[in-house]
DNA sequence: CCCACCAGATTGGTAGGGCCAATTTGACAA
DNA sequence: TTGTCAAATTGGCCCTACCAATCTGGTGGG
């Protein structure tokens, strides 16, 4: 058993704490059971109902528009888009920022996407890594070692290692997607590593992966990443099984 | 040679035509050579310089913030983020919407990400497709056939087919990413299919892929997708080679 | 009875002014 | 040199007003 965490917060850091007006609008939409294509109240009415100024509403709607959750039609109104068909990945990030949990299906899908991207990405990293990439990976490893030794929550160390590997792919577009993924799963990752026993194992796998990437052994690195991800995936699938009775939150 | 296009626009449709204030701010940033971490002028000053109201500035900044290109620090200012490290995929979509072309590296990276996602995605589609997915795929094929027969630009047909396959993965998160990809490459795709000779070949490959997905032959479907994408990739890599001398635009 | 037409209401888009709280800055005093 | 406090600056937010386009409903002509 790792040493008891002494004064470590029991909640993951919430750095950005976005204005919650977006959340209130989403809640309003959810409460009204508005479905794709339906029209939201006018900006003026929303402002009145939510007791904020119209400018604030406009700003929030602009955000929702950029993540393709709504569509503004001048002189007509604001319409809900088919969120599962049109929504962007950032729509999920936005929801996560606001504390709205993803549902179980989304978590499974996210895990699946992660496996696809990171396994293939690790292979690319093994082929293309440069000195600066290796340095970042090694730095992440070092921070991880200290965190394991200190019994701290491993979540940010884990994220930094994976982001460093994603950076080593030398593919900035892939990195953007992976980055969004880690923003999306901050809370989940934090809870996953709340059990201090997971950290040492993860760190070991990270070290092995880093060695393979250093050696330029792309295939081995990819295989190690696949194995590494399977540990976490197993945990989540088990958790989702347990929650079948009625639980819905998972973020 | 396909029949000459009679009255077909020479530019792809630009449905959304976002407010270009975001573009003007980006131009302002580019012009000032602002780099990551630097502070933008205050909202009031930006409003004055760009000759718009502060509300408009605030909306644009809110958009840039959601795609993680800037960070607003209350009582301090607006700061540029490390766009290649923090930026979201939607930041690229935003740029594409605004008509700012991606640079060559980004195009290559996008192509690479596409291959990873769509090849793996097609395999999943072959395993999970439901009746409704097959219906959408077949509908896309039918529209494609008509477009080929009529000699129309195949771009939207191509996109719809690929989006239908992505939907058949039953992974909404993956679908979001693929969707963003197709938003990003609308213009490029349009130009690619401006040469009418590419459409019949693409349509044939689509038909073969659809058959494999229908049959539930996931491995074959994935292989067909890989081959299909290689045709387009070859074209782009060739184009990028030609442009080495000085060209920079590629969107 | 039907349809074309027009005025008023509604809507998103935008400008501009003002207030607040928090931070930064710099002058002043010990 | 150092501590302190007031003024300027900044993002966050509210409010009013105006515009252009759209939508609505009623009216008048056929």
TrEMBL record, chains A, B:
Span of domain HTH gntR-type: 15-83
Species of the source: Neoroseomonas oryzicola
Molecular function GO terms recorded: DNA binding; DNA-binding transcription factor activity
Pfam family, one: FCD
Key words, A-Z: DNA-binding, Transcription, Transcription regulation
Matching InterPro entries: GntR_C, TF_FadR/GntR_C, Tscrpt_reg_HTH_GntR, WH-like_DNA-bd_sf, WH_DNA-bd_sf
CDD domains: WHTH_GntR
Protein name from the UniProt record: FadR family transcriptional regulator
PROSITE patterns named among the record's database cross-references: HTH_GNTR
